Amino acid sequence: EPDSEAAQKKTKGKGKKRKKTCWLRHHILTSKRRNLMQSKENASYCMEMDSQYFSSSSSCSVQGDMRITLSETFKEERVPSPVIEFDDLEGFVLQPAQQGVTVKCKVTRDKRGVDRGLYPTYYLHLDNEKKVFLLAGRKRKKSTTSNYLISVDPTDLSRGGENYVGKVRSNLMGTKFTVFNNALHPNRALPDMSNARQELAAIIYETNVLGMKGPRRMTVIIPGMNKDGERVPIRPRSDNDGLLIRCQNRNMENLIELRNKTPVWNEETSSHVLNFNGRVTQASVKNFQIIHNKDQDYIVMQFGRVADDAFTLDYSYPLCAVQAFAIALSSFDGKIACE
């Protein structure tokens, strides 16, 4: 009996200790949160926490819990896409966004099915109440390199179908991607190349030679725009005259060079951060913003995670939906050489 009494006291003591530890931890979090609230500058920083890019999770457990608490407290509503109407879906997804309008979309990843674990299907919808479908994309199974087909029909992802509007093709390393429309291969096109396929974009991921984990670095090359706000057609006769080679040779006539915005290192959170203005809510190496070097405040495109298989994608002029969706698809592809 004395032994059992001692054991009961010991158990009660442990329970008190656990309660005390939990109370202390709660007190620490509450105090830290109160101190942050007292400063206007810190309060605005906390409001941004929900929408920032975190490529590192090296913060301690208390900071991690505090970050979650603050993001829940200051969570901003995801602003929906403006009202956009169109009669021709294929025409809309290939047309640049209207100047002054940010098209806000949502990408969902479907892994259900026998082979969709390795070859998921991605869907692009307008991020509004109607959730208007725009595009679907899926990696081809029998291809030596990553090759994604893009369709305006969620049920028809065949290259021979009428709904095929473009594709994304990578190099062997998976670090460079080219985006094409649905026109003919140069070998089958007319001599004047008028019906030959166009290159809509090239995406280049910088290789990580140091082997250190960190934010991705990417460059996006797209055709330039003419005075009427229309895309300049780029129809190379071979890969030796495509966007990737032109960029490599710095032959940038009629081309626009875009880059991802460099995240800022934050000492408090021990992570890289970007402000997505409430449109991104979860940490991911895939989160990024695309800007022009001459105007880093103008976000041409931003992409980021909001759930395990859901992402927001916002794009502006001069990008079109196919270009933006293709850039997002390239980010899903594995990049051993980059991270």
Using the alpha-carbon principal axes, give the shape.
Answer: globular
Poorly predicted runs: 16-75
Task: Summarize the amount of helix as a percent range.
Answer: 10-25%
Q: Count the E strands.
A: 14
- N- and C-termini, Cα separation: 62 Å
The chain-level structural class is alpha+beta
Strand order of the largest sheet: 1-2-3-4-5-6-7-8-9-12-13-14
Mean pLDDT: 77
- CA radius of gyration is 24 Å
Largest sheet: 12 strands, antiparallel, barrel
Task: Please trace the helix and strand order, writing H or E for each element.
Answer: HHHHEEEEEEEEHEEEEEEH
Number of continuous helical runs: 6
Portion in beta strands:
25-35%
Family: Belongs to the TUB family.
Domain Tubby C-terminal: 94-333
GO molecular function: actin filament binding
Protein name: TUB like protein 1b
